[in-house]
What we know:
The structure holds two protein chains of two kinds. Chain A is an all-beta fold. Chain A contains no helices and eleven strands.
Amino acid sequence: GENVEQHPSTLSVQEGDSAVIKCTYSDSASNYFPWYKQELGKGPQLIIDIRSNVGEKKDQRIAVTLNKTAKHFSLHITETQPEDSAVYFCAASPSWNSGGSNYKLTFGKGTLLTVNP
Amino acid sequence: NAGVTQTPKFQVLKTGQSMTLQCAQDMNHNSMYWYRQDPGMGLRLIYYSASEGTTDKGEVPNGYNVSRLNKREFSLRLESAAPSQTSVYFCASSFIAGGSRSPAQYFGPGTRLTVT
């Protein structure tokens, strides 16, 4: 089955700096890669996702890059703010265009990001 | 739109007791999921329902049962709670993963369950 490794497990940055979180996956059939932000005591919130036919996607201060050959994808947060402090999860799934046949979303173990004012 | 809602928010059970966790979504999604989250283990899929009328086991189904009551509601039942089921439980929903529609899963706020 799919295995998703996420690094680092903790990341501390100064406000205004950039933060990068990296994930690798094992199943070449995976074609959908979402990123979730989870604040303390809350459910995971989808912040950005990417399909395997796209190499990069940006949404304001957040970007995700995908290297299918190397089977890794990364989350980039620029101009970090204290409110970016949270646990971030990457995930991988073969669910896009699967015809409804595969729903499994495999998660990394999370990165605790702390943005220091 | 409320998105995905879960009840209760917190629950304490004694070993052997039973309970049902409720989940509802108002996004007209076809598929619904139950996950548990434990420290150091990330999110693990317990059961899912690809569409109304179907349910399937996920990664950690033992000790749980589910019911897809209608398109909006998906419940998780613990028949005889055990301390190993102490966890945070999340419900999620999505459109059916096919065609050009995004399979993005949207999560509820969670139920924090302690079994003593």
